[in-house]
């Protein structure tokens, strides 16, 4: 079974970094892991987490503590066996030699670090907009800076970086510069606002949704959302979707 290589490490208020070593694994940016959080049958359902980064057969995740499963994970120690299914889902399209814009909100920045690194390895110029509610929730800032050519941090309360919403920064950047492709992950209202700014422009964009999952492997259809192609299961048809394909009302009803 995959094993935690070190104690779960606090990287911001309520946020923990976990490094999980597999015998062997191939995982792409935007895919996720589904973890049995707890040592007995309760909680029953696995908990999905984005792949924050990957070094060979070690996957890193960032866990924000919101309930029982995430609290349990935050207390895991080095050497713990992790009951995890991975990699799952459909990841981001990896552009090559493009002007890429990445926009993350809160813990939704998690899948975007591995993405940024892989895009730069493909000769993309990466502009990264990192949004958080407040400075105490900003995690792994140095790693995000190192993975991008331009990096802008905003916090809603101005306690770190520029004061304001990340979508305000997005509007400014889009008015000033051209991009070929954009990638977004964060709370549903933030993604909807970002999509409204991106959709009228001649720019491809993808979103990673984080609605509630049941089984995580496409069996229960509990995570289905409406798209221009009909109902799609976020766990197997996503979590990454074409930004123009999503019917926002259906996603909001699930968040
Ligand atoms: C594809 C995907 C990727 C994700 N990636 C990450 C990640 O990288 N890091 C991270 O910290 N979290 C991530 N999440 C969210 C994470 O799965 C949930 O926070 C986790 O399952 C909560 O488990 P819990 O037992 O601690 O909380 P519970 O006890 O189940 O719930 C506690 C509270 O959190 C709310 N909640 C639970 N799940 C969600 C959800 N999916 N969306 C919004 N609110 C929720 C509940 O309504 C409740 O209020 C992701 C979710 C998805 C679907």
Task: Summarize the structure in short.
The protein is an alpha/beta fold and 255 residues long. 21% of the residues lie in helices and 31% in strands. The protein has 6 helices and 17 strands.
Name a few traits of the molecule.
single chain; 255 residues; alpha/beta; Elongation Factor Tu (Ef-tu), domain 3; Rossmann fold; 2 domains; seven-stranded mixed sheet; five-stranded antiparallel sheet; 6 helices; 21% helix; globular; binds flavin-adenine dinucleotide
Description:
By secondary structure, this protein is an alpha/beta fold. It folds into two domains: 3-88, Elongation Factor Tu (Ef-tu), domain 3 (Beta Barrel); 99-208, Rossmann fold (3-Layer(aba) Sandwich). It contains six helices and 17 strands. The chain has helices at 68-74, 110-121, 141-146, 166-176, 188-198, 248-254; strands spanning 3-4, 9-12, 15-21, 32-35, 47-50, 53-55, 58-64, 84-88, 99-105, 125-132, 150-155, 162-163, 181-185, 204-208, 224-227, 230-233, 240-242. It has a seven-stranded mixed β-sheet, sandwiched between helices. Strands 1, 2, 3, 6 and 7 form a five-stranded antiparallel β-sheet that branches. Helix 2 links the parallel strand 9 (99-105) and strand 10. Helix 4 runs parallel beside helix 5. The longest helix is centred in the middle third of the chain and has 12 residues, at 110-121. 44% of the residues are buried. The mean pLDDT is 95. It binds flavin-adenine dinucleotide. Flavin-adenine dinucleotide is lined by residues 32, 43, 47-50, 61-64, 66-70, 107, 110, 210, 212-213, 239, 255.
Mind sketching the topology for me?
Blueprint: E1 3-4, E2 9-12, E3 15-21, E4 32-35, E5 47-50, E6 53-55, E7 58-64, H1 68-74, E8 84-88, E9 99-105, H2 110-121, E10 125-132, H3 141-146, E11 150-155, E12 162-163, H4 166-176, E13 181-185, H5 188-198, E14 204-208, E15 224-227, E16 230-233, E17 240-242, H6 248-254
Parallel strand pairs: 9-10, 9-13, 10-11, 11-12, 13-14
Antiparallel strand pairs: 1-3, 2-3, 3-7, 4-5, 4-8, 6-7, 14-17, 15-16
The structure holds flavin-adenine dinucleotide.
Flavin-adenine dinucleotide is lined by residues 32, 43, 47-50, 61-64, 66-70, 107, 110, 210, 212-213, 239, 255.
């Amino acid at each position: 079974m995959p094993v935690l290589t070190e104690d779960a490490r606090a990287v911001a208020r309520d946020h923990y970094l976990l490094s999980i070593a597999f015998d062997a694994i191939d995982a792409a940016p935007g895919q996720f892991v589904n973890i049995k959080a707890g040592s007995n049958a309760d909680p029953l359902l696995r908990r999905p987490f984005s792949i924050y980064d990957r070094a060979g057969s070690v996957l890193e995740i960032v866990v924000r503590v919101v309930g029982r499963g995430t609290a349990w994970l935050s207390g895991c120690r080095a050497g713990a066996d992790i009951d995890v299914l991975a990699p799952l889902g459909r990841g981001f399209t990896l552009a090559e030699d493009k002007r890429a814009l990445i926009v993350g909100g809160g813990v939704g920045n998690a899948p975007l670090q591995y993405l940024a690194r892989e895009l730069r390895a493909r000769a993309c110029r990466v502009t990264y907009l990192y949004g958080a509610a407040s400075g105490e929730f900003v995690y792994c800032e140095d790693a995000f800076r190192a993975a991008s050519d331009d990096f802008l941090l905003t916090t809603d309360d101005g306690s770190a970086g520029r004061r304001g919403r990340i979508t305000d920064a997005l509007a400014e950047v889009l008015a000033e510069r051209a991009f070929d492709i954009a990638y977004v992950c964060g709370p549903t209202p933030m993604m909807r606002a970002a999509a409204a700014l991106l959709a009228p422009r001649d720019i491809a964009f993808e979103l990673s949704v984080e609605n509630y999952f049941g089984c995580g492997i496409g069996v229960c259809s509990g995570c289905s959302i409406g798209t221009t192609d009909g109902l799609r299961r976020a766990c197997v048809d996503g979590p990454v979707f074409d930004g123009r394909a999503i019917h926002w009302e259906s996603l909001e009803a699930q968040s």
